[in-house]
């Protein structure tokens, strides 16, 4: 393992004013997104859509440090035959790959999930590295509800995240470690804060046990927010203050960067929260976005599957990327 190289990739992924485009929706998830805009989820439509994003010059060259791809996309060619991964490299962004294989029900723990995909992961990572991927992503999902999360769900997911991260580093790939505490429930921000702290602490304990080099990874956490069904919505300032406090308590300064998921926040909320956190600086790590929905909802709508809308889709994507790029420096104004 070459830690200097891993560290410089991780540092580039969270470069000031830049963040990550999470375009790694599984076939099931992209179908849901396409259904919402009335587009059939065919291989060609998925290719056209992602090609539109990766050819967005302004966004890709100025505000996007890296792109997380799904397995199908990393092997796909653009309409003119150019591999999509080459489009990303030529824009100056770093290609990455989602390597988890989704979730399964966790035995003995009703309603809870464990992320799978460790079998044969070493071989898959080798092929992805040869194709050009320099970072990877694995998402664990922790739900908040009555009596959950269990310590069992937190432990097995943290263990799997650390197994994945160690395998990535051995393959010279920077792991994005993503323990996502969902914002689906009716809980308030303080419960999210407590659960996320427990999850992060357990995750870093496992990373240490499994000898993962913290200097060669990126953390992708949720923010401390109230659940979507909570009657008590937290203000932007409260989200920023509690999230920064939580991360300072749990994330060692050796970690080069933290890149948030948007997790169902609206586009503007995700931007405003990140911006407000930078107002509380200086921070010990790079702090930026790794958004899926909060970067793509607008371009998806503008595109709506029509070739004549490609320029409008690219404008919508570049706008959100620019807003989040500003927020990643604390320079966004609503
Ligand atoms: P969202 O920003 O839509 O939560 O997606 C980010 C991601 O990669 C989830 O794994």
Automatic annotation (TrEMBL):
TM regions (residue ranges): none
EC number(s) per entry: 4.1.2.13
Pathway entry: Carbohydrate degradation; glycolysis; D-glyceraldehyde 3-phosphate and glycerone phosphate from D-glucose: step 4/4
Top-level taxon of the source organism: Bacteria
Principal EC category: lyase
Pfam families cross-referenced by the UniProt entry: Glycolytic
GO biological process: glycolytic process
Keyword match Lyase: yes
Reactions this protein catalyses: beta-D-fructose 1,6-bisphosphate = D-glyceraldehyde 3-phosphate + dihydroxyacetone phosphate
GO molecular function: fructose-bisphosphate aldolase activity
CDD domains to which the protein is assigned, alphabetical: FBP_aldolase_I_a
Similarity comment text for this entry: Belongs to the class I fructose-bisphosphate aldolase family.
Entries under NCBIfam families matching the protein: FrucBisAld_I (NF033379)
Name recorded for this polypeptide: Probable fructose-bisphosphate aldolase class 1
Native species: Bradyrhizobium centrolobii
């Amino acid at each position: 393992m070459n830690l200097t190289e891993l560290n410089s990739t991780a540092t580039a992924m969270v470069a000031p004013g830049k963040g990550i485009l999470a375009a790694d929706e599984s076939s099931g998830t992209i179908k849901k997104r396409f259904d919402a805009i009335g587009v059939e989820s065919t291989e060609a439509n998925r290719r056209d859509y992602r090609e539109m994003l990766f050819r967005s010059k302004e966004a890709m060259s100025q505000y996007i440090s890296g792109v997380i791809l799904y397995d199908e996309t990393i092997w796909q060619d653009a309409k003119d035959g150019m591999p999509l991964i080459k489009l990303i490299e030529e824009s100056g962004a770093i290609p990455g790959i989602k390597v988890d294989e989704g979730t399964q029900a966790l035995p003995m723990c009703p309603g809870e999930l464990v992320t799978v995909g460790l079998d044969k992961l070493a071989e898959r990572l080798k092929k992805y590295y040869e194709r050009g991927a320099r970072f990877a992503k694995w998402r664990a999902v922790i739900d908040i509800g009555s009596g959950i999360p269990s310590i069992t769900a937190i432990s097995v997911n943290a263990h799997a995240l650390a197994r994945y991260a160690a395998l990535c580093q051995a393959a010279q790939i920077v792991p994005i470690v993503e323990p996502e505490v969902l914002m689906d429930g009716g809980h308030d921000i303080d419960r999210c804060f407590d659960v996320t702290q427990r999850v992060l602490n357990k995750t870093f304990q496992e990373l240490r046990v499994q000898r993962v080099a913290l200097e060669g990874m990126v953390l992708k956490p949720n923010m401390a927010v109230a659940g979507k069904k909570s009657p008590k919505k937290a203000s932007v300032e409260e989200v920023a203050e509690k999230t920064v406090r939580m991360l300072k308590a749990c994330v060692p300064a050796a970690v080069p960067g933290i890149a948030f998921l948007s997790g169902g926040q609206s586009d503007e909320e995700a931007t405003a929260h990140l911006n407000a956190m930078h107002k509380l600086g200086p921070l010990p790590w790079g702090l930026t976005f790794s958004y899926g929905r909060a970067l793509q909802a607008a371009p998806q709508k503008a595109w709506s599957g029509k070739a004549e809308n490609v320029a409008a889709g690219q404008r919508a994507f570049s706008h959100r990327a620019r807003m989040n790029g500003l927020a990643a420096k604390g320079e966004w104004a609503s």
